Amino acid sequence: MTERVFHRVCVFSGSRFGSDPAFKQAASELGATLAEHEIELVYGGGSVGLMGVIADSILSRGGRATGVIPEFLATKELMHKGLSEVFVTQDMHTRKAKMAELSDAFIAMPGGLGTFEELFEMVTWAQLGVHEKPIGLLNTKGFYQPLLDMIEHTIDAGFIHDSHRQLLVAEQDPSRLLSRLQNQPALNFQKVTDLNRT
Question: What is the pLDDT of residues 169-182, one digit of tens each?
């Protein structure tokens, strides 16, 4: 199988640092990993929390970071001032669509409700065949294990097809996560009209 070539990876992450220093360290390591592989970061454009950490990390190593931020947040001085490129969108919906358009893959770091919402929209789009881009979870200190357990529970309950568990790749190490995403085979799921018959 040919390894996928990533030019840009979209990272969803928290606008806070979280309670464990390991989250901040993981964000910095992921930024360094992307810079090492000459992969551009696409993210929410903020300067705060883990968003700011990953942007600072990749930029400090000579990499590129593109921010996509809605106008109402950009005007609150939350936008990172040192980005390679910035797209200011009309609203949150346009923001997610632009991030998806720009990126070859998606990674969710630890974060809150906004991170979960962005992650699940991309997972749902993949399930419906809107895109075939790989999706990863940076599972720092098992942050996403409860979510993975919930997905397994939902599969057991008959609400998610068992093949759809392949939509998410989880790793604690940023380099290993990137490698697995690059080597993930294309997933050919059924058309939307067939979903209710599986």
Answer: 999 999 999 999 99
Q: What whole-number distance in Å separates Cα of residue 160 and Cα of residue 146?
A: 17
Assign 170 to helix, strand or coil.
Answer: strand
Alpha helices in the chain (DSSP H): 21-36, 49-60, 71-74, 92-102, 113-127, 145-156, 174-182
Query: Where do we find the tokens 């930024």?
Result: 31
Percent with pLDDT over 70 in the chain:
92
Residue 79: closest CA among 98, 55, 60 = 55
Region 8-180: CATH code: 3.40.50.450
**Contact (CB, 8 A) for 47 and 79:** yes
Q: Is the pLDDT of residue 121 over 90?
A: yes
- Delimit the domains of the chain by residue range: 8-180
Counts for the chain of helices (H) and strands (E), in that order: 7, 7
Phi then psi for 76, rounded to 5 degrees? Answer: -95, 15
Helix, strand or coil for residue 58?
A: helix
